[in-house]
Amino acid sequence: MFIIGELINGMYSYIGKAIAEKNKGVIQKYALDQLKAGADALDVNCGPASKQPILDIQWLIETIQEVTDKTICIDSSKPDVIESGLKVTKNKAIINSTTADVAKLDKLIPLAKKYHAKLIGLTISAKGIPQNKDQRLELAAQIVATCSEAGFLLDDLYLDPIVMPVNVAQSQQNEILESIREFKILSEPSPKTIVGLSNVSQGTFVRPLINRTFLVMAQSFGLDAAILDPLDSELMDAGITADLILNKHIFCDKYLEAYRKK
Amino acid sequence: MALQLMTERWSGKISVVSIGATKEELGTRTHTIRIGGEESLPCLFQEAPIPNKPAIAFEIWDIAPSDWLDELNKVYGNVLNDPLKWAEKCVKEFKAQSLCIKMQGAHPDFGNRSEKEEAALVKELLKRVSVPLIILGCGDDTKDNLLLPACSEAAKGERCLIGSAVGDNYKTITASALADGHSLIAESPIDINIAKQLNILISDMGLPLERIVINPTIGALGYGLEYAYSIMERARLAALSGDKTVASPFVCFVGQETWRVKEAKTDHPEQGIIWETLTSTALIQAGADLLVMRHPKAVEKIDKYIEELFNHK
Hints:
The complex is a heterodimer.
Chain A: E1 2-9, H1 13-21, H2 24-36, E2 41-45, H3 53-65, E3 71-75, H4 79-88, E4 94-98, H5 102-114, E5 118-122, H6 133-149, E6 157-160, H7 173-183, E7 192-196, H8 207-220, E8 225-228, H9 233-245, H10 255-261
Parallel strand pairs in A: 1-2, 1-8, 2-3, 3-4, 4-5, 5-6, 6-7, 7-8
Helix pairs in contact in A: 1-2, 3-4, 6-7, 8-9
Chain B: E1 16-19, E2 33-36, E3 55-61, H1 70-76, H2 83-93, E4 99-102, H3 115-128, E5 133-136, H4 141-154, E6 161-165, H5 171-180, E7 183-187, H6 192-204, E8 212-215, H7 225-240, E9 250-253, H8 254-258, H9 271-286, E10 288-293, H10 296-311
Parallel strand pairs in B: 3-4, 3-10, 4-5, 5-6, 6-7, 7-8, 9-10
Antiparallel strand pairs in B: 1-2
Helix pairs in contact in B: 2-3, 3-4, 4-5, 7-9, 9-10
């Protein structure tokens, strides 16, 4: 499981404040804490309060790159903010994200190619959030076809089925899980699959339990990556154990520690 | 149509372990042996770099082995009684590039030599030969906990490979390797789960994973070789996929395993040599990085095999 740590997001007050005050220590601490907890990559988002996201994203990325070379996942709905971030990333980055809209794809696929970045494609369009598996597959196929035509490597594409809160979209959960499995058979090589996990538990009282139960279920449907809070150690332990049961790691008594040593 | 190879892209690589410190590195060895560093499965030369060829060490003992076969006794003759002459014969006559000395005589059942005597032997051995050294305990945990620290200290700074750390007994030897600048053999009984666990326990004590060599334990041809092969393959696949806890080079004690099977004990000339040679070739294909061997003729054949294999890439 490829884990992208979600905590460096200006939406959280401590990060928003650190961005406003240009406090590198806070950002670097959250970067290192997440990596130590087992994250493979770090999502970076300036948040809605940022007045200068084009500059702030660069400051965030450069601040993080002072302490780690791990993958940066540039999170913005604005292509110019993403490109600004791509300009300063040292290693292969991940673009988070494009929708299935042609206008968005036409901007972001060339950017991903130009900067040799990976790309997250949300199965969502200007028409709104899909309501069932078939709509998700249709949007996924559109993203895959556009990437393929543009010569973008499908190995580097992550498809996100759009996780919905269980308290408002209970009937959709099974459709979302099944979409994960079916995305994988859209092309050869398969696109990868990803979820923004914490959405599933929005507005509920037992968020950690719902998050980790959904994660484990999604893994059994073939999920490749997740954006989540790696400091939730029970969530991470559940994810690592699910990978173990799926025979993705070699068992040993200290398998949890072994995973975090990688 | 031109042949197009299907190659795999791996994210991990096997760590490189160096054995032997030269004068520049404040040791006294004439050369260093580097093992590991593979970035693909064994022998897939077109796929990714395989920077180091498998290395061979000659096995010698501190006492004359009582149960070695005539085929071996014929070769080594009276030097079996003198580990220093035995070592010199391997280096001078058989061009050994490294030696593996087993302190069998320290075992309570095989003479119970003291750790002082054995440490003195290590010191003398380092003076008499200048190839990199592998030092093995006697296999008795209690005795090894006295013996190996003494031998480790006697060879301080020479960057030896010492062994073996096992699941029930790894702390003393790990501390010694750390203190004296050696690398460590971690031995598990043909069990990938224990191999991984042991590597973690050792690295938890502060010895970097990059200074561990895995002894996966092997069986000779016809005696579980394929089982050892599958364990090695499993570890390599995980290591190349990014699991650093099993990304160690392999040492395989081929001589010890092959010269005790019944096929080596027949009257047929050279059958033991053939068994040692064939077991070695299979293990090289399984990913062995260091082979500890006994018969110089088998070593000669394997040397040639390695040359041909690596020159045809």
